[in-house]
Specification:
By secondary structure, the chain is mostly helical. Helix content is 30%, strand content 0%.
Length: 107
């Protein structure tokens, strides 16, 4: 998990609360409840409030910007769009693979 957090840039030491979270934190403090900072994969000063829906500025270090970009840059990745998986096959035979394989089965 440490390697994943490092690649995604997960941290909690530079987060600046956006307006909603600042009010929430103040309310918790006023009521005597503990509040903390959730580790996240975005630059510390970034607080658009939309990252969970797709960061408008592209600053959140999501799998799109990290792992999929890494895969694309190797030249060995193939991306299939506009499809869906109706079954994911898993089991012991996948445990020894270095790469997670999703088998897309089409109707």
């Amino acid at each position: 998990m440490d390697a994943v957090c490092q690649r995604l840039g997960v941290h909690d030491d530079q987060t600046v609360d956006n307006t909603c979270n600042a009010y929430f934190r103040a309310g918790c403090e006023k009521l005597g409840y503990h509040s903390g900072t959730i580790p996240r994969n975005a630059p510390g000063a970034h607080s658009c409030g939309w990252c969970c829906f797709g960061c408008k500025k592209g600053e959140k270090q999501s799998t799109l910007i990290t792992y999929l970009q890494d895969a694309s840059e190797t030249g060995n990745a193939r991306f299939i769009t506009e499809c869906f998986a109706n079954k994911i096959i898993h089991g012991e035979f996948l445990q020894n693979l270095d790469v997670l394989l999703l088998l897309l089965l089409f109707d």
